[in-house]
Amino acid sequence: MITIEVVKQALLRSGATWVLGLLGALSLLSMAIIVERWLFYRQRGCDLPKLARRLGASLAARDVEGARAALHESKSVAATVAAAGLELANLGAVSADKAMQSATALERARLERWLAYLGTLGNNAPFIGLFGTVIGVIGAFEALGQSPAGHLASGAVSATQVASQTVMTKIAEALVATAVGILVALPAVAAFNYFQRRIASLLSSTEVLSNLVLAYLSRESHGD
After folding, report:
1. At what angle do helices 64-73 and 48-60 cross, to 10 degrees?
2. Which of 20, 37, 39, 62 is most buried, most CB within 10 Å of its CB?
3. Using CA atoms, how far apart are residues 171 and 135, in angstroms rounded to an integer?
4. Helix (H), strand (E) at residue 149
5. What is the pLDDT of residues 154-174, one digit of tens each?
6. How many domains are contained in the chain?
7. How confident is the model at residue 154, as a pLDDT?
8. Is there a domain that residue 26 lies in?
């Protein structure tokens, strides 16, 4: 049966250093994800007004192949979704609309990749740091409990002072874990919130080109 003493000794033997190492590893992974996502979102953006004018001009001239070529030249989310609609243009507006909805769902999944990690790290890194602090505080009180209790001996006062200094040092070191946890969480939370807004912006841009495609197909269905 696991007792409190067993758990305490296990925590004292492990120390809080491994918590700092864990936070450091999580922070490095977080920064790698932030850089990768930023580059990915930058690549999936575009000059939307320019692309919309080019697509609109091609569709107005009934140049579907030219419209497809313009979309395939762009790696943006909006172009990918609109291209999916044009692929099924011959089946009508309803089929094209469904195709674009499906493409939007796929793009959303790609855009949201790794964001769960950033959100989880932002929420839990302070708790990981706090866990390290708790381990350090346990060690500090353990050292305090083992300090000389007698005060009659000539060296008792000085020994107690040394013990108190040791305890304070341990507590100060323990608080470092909480500080590091907060430091790891801050960029993760900031990046998560920024990327969520970026995703919303990229997905909203798909409506511009999607509506152009649907407007063209609606015109064609009416024989205009």
Report:
1. 160
2. 37
3. 10
4. none
5. 455 555 666 577 777 778 878
6. 1
7. 46
8. yes
